[in-house]
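G protein-coupled receptor kinase, Oncorhynchus tshawytscha. Tokens?
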Amino acid sequence: CVRAQSLAEQCRENLELHPCKEIFSDCRKALHDYLRRAPFSDYQNSMYFDRFLQWKMLERQPITKDTFRQYRVLGKGGFGEVCACQVRATGKMYACKKLEKKRIKKRKGESMALNEKQILEKVNSRFVVSLAYAYETKDALCLVLTLMNGGDLKFHIYSMGTPGFEKDRVQFYAAQICCGLDHLHQESIVYRDLKPENILLDDNGHIRISDLGLAIKVPEGDPIRGRVGTVGYMAPEVINNERYGMSPDWWGLGCLIYEMTAGRSPFRARKERVKREEVEKRVQEGEEEYSDKFTEDTQAICRVLLTKDPKQRLGCTMEGSTGVKAHCFFRNINFKRLEAGIQEPSFVPDPRAVYCKDVLDIEQFSTVKGVNLDQTDNDFYFKFSTGCVSIPWQHEMIDTECFSDLNVFGPQATRTPDLDWNTPPEPPRRSLLDRIFRRHVRTHQHTQSHTEFTLHTAMLHLSHNQTCV
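Tokens:
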């Protein structure tokens, strides 16, 4: 401990004398080299490491449909329905996006489904929906995502009175979308499908970007090409099938700011019947029109985001997202508070209201016929069904107070019975956690090593003390 404090103090002094990245890197390496020796060995021999193993074992429990309670249908996606669900052991609510296996195969959507799942695993942002679990049933692949009860922006723009929003609400949503795009771009991911339907509100009025089926990772220094997106929202470089990096997303932000303000998209009026070719021609050659709903700042940011040449577009220069956040349109937004989740939204959904069309109006999917699943499909399902995702799962344990209820040590930081290797495990009570774990215990009861025995007693302790459920 004294040695670690000495190293930390030395690092602090060096940084004050030479505040540069190289010195910081050297100090961090020196501290890391020290901690990985004796301190880490001490940690491995402590009860805290045993408790860590308990939590990791709990985190890696097999995930099946029985892990959840299923509730009403919320809507539908391209490959199946979306319904509300609840984790039985913790009570946490999520949205379950079901991708029907036969429908995926018929439409050759395997790569899109796997791509969305893998990208969601990489992203951890309060402005992008989080993937908590991925599992399969007999008929479907399931993505368990952040539950967003407030509806989508399209519903709020067009179904809540006069189309469009006041400026402060437009600013707030645009700023959060900007932060979400920034997080994706830091992971070298271009979203490519920014539109009101894909922006969802939570219970508190904050938004998240959803539906990452068209998102893709852009190799460093190697722009991509792909004519994908939604008609009326695709950038000129996408329509022209040119190479691009993150530029389509900033074009999409411009389209959204325009639509939230005007109550219509910039290149096609709502419900206007016009051919795809005509819309694309307007995007490539036409100029958007600005009514008196647009303030000077709003019109200015729309113009620089909807610049046809991506090299001149705001967000695509060397400043990147910093340049967008610095625009005078966002002068009333404190981005540090926004990133911390403490900026108050201008609109909070009514918890008694349902911000979507009646579920009875949701079109039912027809049965897929003539599609047979084989071993190749099973290999794909194996890659998809990887169980829980660490960070969202850990947040679930904290938010539902399971961590504070179960992570209990003895008086004066002594070992509890479940962490004492010399204490035989207590008989488990027939409880919910016991039912969840007993299949795993039965599978491993004849092959447990010394460490596994400790984890086994941990499971019994968790069953015995499951005050969280």
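The beta strands are 68-76, 81-87, 93-100, 131-136, 140-145, 189-190, 199-201, 207-209, 216-217, 387-388.
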